[in-house]
Fold these 2 entries.
Entry 1:
Amino acid sequence: MLVSENVLLRPYNTFGINAQARYFSTFADLQQLQTVLQDTRWQSSPRMILGGGSNILFTKDFDGLVLKNELKGITLLKEDDDYIYVKAGAGEQWHRFVMYCIEHNYAGLENLSLIPGNVGASPMQNIGAYGVEIKDYCHEVEAWHLKDNALVTFGNADCAFGYRESVFKRKYKDQFVILSVTYRLLKQAHFNTSYGAIEQELQRMGVGELSIQAISQAVINIRSSKLPDPAAIGNAGSFFKNPTVDAAQYESLRTAHPNIVAYPVDNGYYKLAAGWLIEQCGWKGYRQNDAGVHAKQALVLVNYGNASGQEIYQLSQQVLDSVKEKFGVDLEREVNIV
Ligand code: FAD
Ligand code: EPU
């Protein structure tokens, strides 16, 4: 298997940052992964697994081995009266997998249409959109433990899924290579149209009878109208998480800013729309050189062409500082900083 040296990473990250990897290789099966890992030349170098590169900001060159996962395959494992278990290789494109499920009438993932990236990264931050998170349907994750050289299977509860969180992003960061994910999908759909503008979009589309196909198309339409296409403008989706505050802080914020956008979550806490906070600080549409804040969605930082990872990172720090100063709220970056 070919390991290349000093590889430019611009084609491999949706921010379009031109960092460089000291070593770069792909792997299409476990055997190939093991072969590369055993090579003594980079035994002491750091390693990172790359999927579609849609949730990463490279702020410097990577002085180690980048392993791009190309594990393919979608397999129907088993079914019972209610569920169907579908296993997908980590290197399958997420949206292609969602479309496959919709074509076969396997329900559950339709609200997660058009999220960029690969299946292997889907458990990393428990991807979510339009009222659904993968934790609702993820059955099992198969992963390779880099230090022990062993295959480990994680059940749903083992993954410690939370809002944009999992055991792979925190406790076991950089310890496992996710090889496949099995989803437990529904034979009988539970339509979820309550979030955001889905109902409105379905009406606009003139949908009479609800279906997972129609919901998927509505989500695709909404997403396309406000999120920048990485093929046109570099970005990694929401740069920050939506922050959670307690009831007392929410009440004082609401008194000072009656239009604040928030919704209640568990135990009396409130989730604030970070996009609103950032827009109120005047950032929406801001541009400095090639680093900017998207004009239609202030939660998305963009690279108009030749911004460096450092420039994007510095802009994110300015945004973070201004939200703290105006609202007293701490934003947390969602994107993985390398
Ligand atoms: P990468 O960016 O390649 O990797 C992300 C992290 O996971 C890195 O730390 C990497 O090392 C690690 N990793 C990747 N694959 C593996 C593996 N097989 N084993 C171990 N570690 C691995 N996210 C949402 O949740 N909801 C959204 O609605 C959403 N919308 C987006 C819209 C746009 C326009 C963009 C650009 C991004 C959006 N995202 C969204 C973020 C992104 O699409 C997801 O986080 C996606 O799951 C990242 O997948 P990836 O394959 O590109 O991961
Ligand atoms: N808003 C503004 N100004 C903005 C952006 C948003 O005021 O510039 C307010 C609006 O009131 C809007 C509300 O914030 O109604 C929510 O905005 P939106 O529906 O666009 O969702 P979001 O909270 O900004 C989250 C996820 C997205 C996901 C959408 C849809 C996070 C960090 N982001 O964004 O995920 O697609 O909901 O479910 O939770 C991602 O993770 O990369 C991502 C794109």
Entry 2:
Amino acid sequence: MRARATWIHVDVMDGHFVPNLTIGPVVIRAMRKVSSQLFFDTHLMIDKPLKFAPAFAEAGAQLITIHQETVGSVRHAVQKIRGLGVMAGVSIKPRTSVSAIEPYLDCVDSVLVMTVEPGFGGQDLIPSTLNKVRRLALLREERKLAFHIEVDGGITPETAPLAAAAGANVLVAGSYVFAGGQVKDNIDRLYASIDSPLNSHGILPRE
Ligand code: ZN
């Protein structure tokens, strides 16, 4: 049975920028071989993301998102990533304000708002982070831009409609999707929880 999600979101952690370790380009390359229909969204929660971005692009990542907190210049980082032939996104942790990335919204394909402190799955969404989603949605409209607004962390059938109503059009769900029962049913429940239709990219399972 095929699940409805069309993106796969891969959290890459280095044990430095966040206190956990996950996977790197080698595993992504292997995943890409068996999941060629899915859009590969790669969230680099690592120091020195530009050092590793070429390897992730080479491995098959289609969107590479770096953290504002890890780069000197977001614009430079985005240009470097785009130069690899992939889409570029920027992410902010819960304590980083939207103003830190406001000057760069014209050059990004996606803005990822961390709705929990990055590092571990299974946390509750921090409600105040949705104010950032609202602010970004407003700026996107005011400036007639088209970047995705992605939320990452604590997405459940209770929080998904709140995030969508705030303006997020890409919802990353990890623990809820994989915590029990059928993955397909869990994803269907997330879709059913949202009144307004998401864009064609829909809800993402997080690996
Ligand atoms: Zn993520």
